[in-house]
Recover the amino acids of this structure.
């Protein structure tokens, strides 16, 4: 397909376990974003990649969260030692280079719903 | 810091009616971008419409239009001739013109229900 894909679509894990969430951006999109959507709330920005680099990781909520991107394409968001408050929908988006004007539209994947028991 | 406020948690209208969703934001920036996204039950976030702050003309996309009031920091979405498929969560979002992360800052959303 031509859209952003994410896997798994749903993940149930036990508190304390590590999880990996995957995002496949639209082909040709150099920018990739991770957001977290908690129940009944708007989206919270986590991290942005331009190519394989993340200029600023301060949006990650704790040092249990990490993300990487390889080959300028697939990205993985890893949560170590999961806690119940990590339960949320994790959304990935991609876009063409936002450093060019006007701001490029971010296209979203369907998200991964994470439930930590 | 920028904030986005959507004061209507939920709205419900009859099919074919016109509905307006409110959004206000707070920023000291002069140049920025505003967006309305739609999230149906499938969870897929879909761009509805966007507005550049330096453009005075309100953006329109078919049945969707915005009322952008820069001085009032207001960015409302009007949906004309509403359809059952418009039922979704609607999120207003803001992006600074210059930002190291190009992040979208989001409102809490408005749940819109179109009744047959």
């Amino acid at each position: 397909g031509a859209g952003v894909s994410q896997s798994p679509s749903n993940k149930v894990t036990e508190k304390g376990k590590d999880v990996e969430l995957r995002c496949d951006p639209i082909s040709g999109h150099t920018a990739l974003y991770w957001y977290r959507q908690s129940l009944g709330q708007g989206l919270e920005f986590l991290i942005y990649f331009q190519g394989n680099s993340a200029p600023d990781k301060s949006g990650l909520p704790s040092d249990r969260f990490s993300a990487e991107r390889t080959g300028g394409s697939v990205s993985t968001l890893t949560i170590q030692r999961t806690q119940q408050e990590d339960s949320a929908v994790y959304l990935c988006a991609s876009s063409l280079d936002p450093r060019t004007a006007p701001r490029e539209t971010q296209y979203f994947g369907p998200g991964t719903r994470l439930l930590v028991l | 810091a920028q904030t986005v406020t959507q004061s209507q948690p939920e709205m419900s209208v009859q099919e074919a009616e016109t509905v307006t969703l409110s959004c206000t934001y707070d920023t000291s920036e002069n140049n920025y971008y505003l967006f309305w996204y739609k999230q149906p039950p499938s969870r897929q976030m879909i761009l509805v419409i966007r507005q550049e702050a330096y453009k005075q003309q309100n953006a329109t996309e078919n049945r969707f239009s915005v009322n952008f009031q820069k001085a009032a920091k207001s960015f409302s979405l009007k949906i004309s001739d509403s359809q059952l498929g418009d039922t979704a969560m609607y999120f207003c979002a803001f992006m600074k013109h210059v930002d190291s992360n190009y992040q979208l800052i989001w409102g809490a959303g408005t749940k819109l229900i179109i009744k047959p």
About this structure: Residues 95 and 104 of chain B are 5 Å apart (CA to CA). Chain B has no helices and twelve strands. The first strand of chain B starts at residue 3 and ends at 5.
